[in-house]
Amino acid sequence: MNNTVFNMFKQALAFKNESRSRRLLSYALVVLFTSTSIASKATPNLPPLHDSALDIVVELPFRPGNVSVTTSGRVFATIHPFAGERGVQLIEIKPKGKYQPWPSNALQSPEGSYSAKTIDSPLGITDDKQGGLWIVDMGNHLGYTRIWGFDIETGNVIAKINLPKEIVPATSFVQDLVVDRQRGWIYLADLANPSIISVELSTQNVRRFSDHPGLQPEAGATMIINNEPVLFAGQPAHSGINPITLSDDGETLFFGAMNGTSWYRLPTIGLRQQSSDKAIKASVNKVGAKPISDGATTDKMGIHYFTNLNANGIDILSKNGRLTPLLRDPRLDWPDNVSVSADNWLYISVNQLHKSTPFSGSDKGQAPYFIYRYKLK
User: Fold this and answer.
1) Alpha carbons 276 and 273: distance in angstroms, whole number
2) What pTM does this model have?
3) Rounded to an integer, what distance in angstroms lies between the CA atom of residue 260 and that of residue 237?
4) Sheet arrangement for strand 174-180
């Protein structure tokens, strides 16, 4: 065990806040047990090609997490938990580069003050295409994960689900979600304990599926940004399932590891009908290749868009399984996630996450941070 991991264990044991202690222990264990599997040879980084077609949607003084564009064209973003204490967790982007807390100041958590009534540590965000906006709240301070659903028109809370600790413990890092409101299901990705979590809205029954190698990081899928290996807590970053998307008809779930080069599909009927883990595993098929990526989205036509962390870019996986570059731009300095609008703009959240304290030991990021957009053909 190296000194970095040892110190993480010491810090975790010293925390008075039990939930934060468990979470830091989880990070230390992930680093300890996954870093040894990385191959020594890294994939060469591609030289970024500047693309001036990127439009700035908003400049932010703090790191955005994920961005989501609703069917009506409204733009929302979470504030990344690695941004530190900011007193705001969920915002709406307004015209002319403005933003404001959403749905209200009352639901934000002021610095150092967190409660069951306010948003704690959100990251994943999605529009359900039926008037609802949903976020997954990892609960870094409260010690448990929640799902929030909001009515986009009124801002009213339409659902708040506490995920049971026996299925989603405090050591989880549930960072992404998709919502099939028509059938009443939510699917989430747990990076720390690589799994797909499914939630039935009507019963709030929760299930964890972990039995597939595609959920795990791949040996040799090394993260290198701007020609520098990316470390997490002093060890090469090596993470499992992160991007998760849903087909337009809700019948297929797509997923892949952050440190992975394969994109998979899973028919949702197995999860909805409570099939066995063995049957669900057997139903998983590879769709095609993917880059090392933090975020992804799938449009109505079944085209997949990935953030490409190593190449400061965005890649496309076509319906025929061909992976090609879409964007290369040095301004895409850790593109965290993407969202496609109804009028065919690709929104990109960029936050220099590899320069944040958990990765770099201290915050080396430089504001402003950005949400961009790019017109798709």
Assistant:
1) 9
2) 0.87
3) 12
4) 174-180, 185-190, 195-200, 206-209
β-bridge pairing 231-232 and 345-350: unpaired
Kindly provide the b/e burial profile for residues 213-244, where b requires at least 16 CB atoms within 10 angstroms of the residue's own CB: ebbbbbeebbbbbeeeebbbbbbbbbbbbbbb
Rounded to whole angstroms, how far apart are CA atoms 164 and 294?
26
pLDDT in tens, 113-156: 999 999 999 999 999 999 999 999 999 999 999 999 999 999 99
Closest listed residue to residue 347, CA positions, set 335, 356, 363, 329: 335
Report the C-alpha gap between 304 and 157 in whole angstroms: 30
Task: Considering only the C-alpha atoms of the chain, give the largest distance between any 2 of them, rounded to a whole number of Å.
Answer: 53
What is the distance of C-alpha 156 from the center of its chain? 24
- pLDDT higher than 80, residue 351: yes
Cβ pair 349, 59 in contact under 8 A: no
Which string of DSSP letters, residue by residue, matches 295-328?
A: -EEE-TTS-EEEEETTTTEEEEE-TTS-EEEEEE
Supply the DSSP string of 36-82, one letter for each residue.
GG--SSPPPPPPP---TTPEEEEEESS-EEEEEE-TTS-EEEEEPGG
Tokens of 358: 């958990």
Report the alpha-carbon distance of residue 194 to residue 215 in Å, rounded: 6
